[in-house]
Amino acid sequence: MNLSVEGGAKLRGTVVTNTSKNGAVGLLAAALLNKSTTTLRGMPRIEEVNRHLEALTSIGMGIHWDGDDLTLTPPKKYNLKAIDAAAAMKTRSIIMYIGSLMHHFASFSIPQSGGCKLGSRTVRPHFYALEHFGVHIDTKDTAFKVTVDKKVPEEIILYESGDTVTENALLAAALTEGLTTIKYASANYMVQELCFFLEACGIIIEGIGTSTLRVHGIHEINTPIVYDLAEDPTDAMFFLTAAIVTNSALAITRVPIDFLELELLKLEKMHFAYTRSKPYFSKNGRTRLVDIKTKPSALVALEEKIHPNVYPGLNADNLPFFAVIATQAEGTTLIHDWMYEKRAIYFTELDKLGAHTDLADPHRIFIHGKTPLHANELVCPPALRPATILLIAMLGAKGHSILRNIYSINRGYEGLVERLSALGAKISYLS
């Protein structure tokens, strides 16, 4: 699928923040814990979710959509030999199934995970975390072979404070009776989302939002669960960035503010002007939201480097947005993407749209602004966030651009073309 973009148009109106991709995939893995039905309200209809549903239905999970509400009905027994390997291998988060399926099988195999191409993204922290529960993982060419001799850990120190490894440990601890303490846990939004869901299932979790989680595991979950998904900070950040690059006044509602406060502070220091409402709660009753109104702003570069960190630092998924923002800020911006090899290299694609960048190494890039953006024809890189910033740059570039092979964008964003068109962008699908 390709996109045609006539750039330079101002955006106007109101856009509602969508629910979270990363939250959704964690809850789909968690649904494997429940012997009864799980209804997830506000499930995003995105390609990443589609791949999970293909994998889940292939092993026996019943799937029913009612608008954007998804009900999952488990079989009496999952048939992992029938798993849709092609679908499973397209998403890295399939590895979280291990934390759930270890409660169903003494041994099993799942396909090796894929997802964004961002250099070396080791899965070893998952192995080190799950071995505390008696899980042994043998890596084959195309699969993970798993054997389980279940035991109750007292304390787990995570090898790294990663989002999916924390979620895998939570899934393992949920149905391991007794108290499991998880230290150096991620406190990011998708981890908190999973904690809220597990609490709805009857599991007590202490320390939500901190780096130490105390999980009181139970014997089983066998009750109908209904849960409302929370909003996605990276979806809100997309539209904040689009407003900045197109120099537009835009209203963005239902923004999960606790996961964008630092990003907004950085933008304030770059002279970005905006207003925000008083906080209110998401439908889950836990996530704080605000409404933001952007104003056209003359930006200046920050003197300090911009870099990601584990929560409560600047979100790694939001860092790429600062690359395209920096093209419209007076001065030189240093972006240090230390978490991922190669991702900073993708940022140099902005040069083809008029940016002026200097790549220092695979992790650091200097972006010199302000530069006028111009139209071009590009192919999406095989990584979600670097692909989205090319689309945003095209919205701000005068002239006709074409963005080809947008699957990587559709993995994480629902209805972008329709939502942008409703805001006045001149964008359409191109066969």
CATH class of the largest domain equals Alpha Beta
- Please identify which CATH superfamily of the largest domain we are dealing with: Enolpyruvate transferase domain
Query: How many distinct folded domains?
Result: 2
Q: Could you name the ranges where pLDDT drops below 50 across 5 or more consecutive residues?
A: 115-120
Please outline the major beta sheet: 5 strands, mixed
For this structure, the CATH topology of the largest domain is UDP-n-acetylglucosamine1-carboxyvinyl-transferase, Chain
Task: Estimate what percentage of residues fall within beta strands.
Answer: 25-35%
**Share of residues in helices:** 25-40%
Which value, in Å, is the CA radius of gyration? 21 Å
Strands, count:
24
The total of helices stands at 14
* Architecture (CATH level 2) name of the largest domain: Alpha-beta prism
What is the average of the pLDDT values? Answer: 95
Separation, N- and C-terminal Cα atoms:
7 Å
Structural class: alpha+beta
Shape: globular
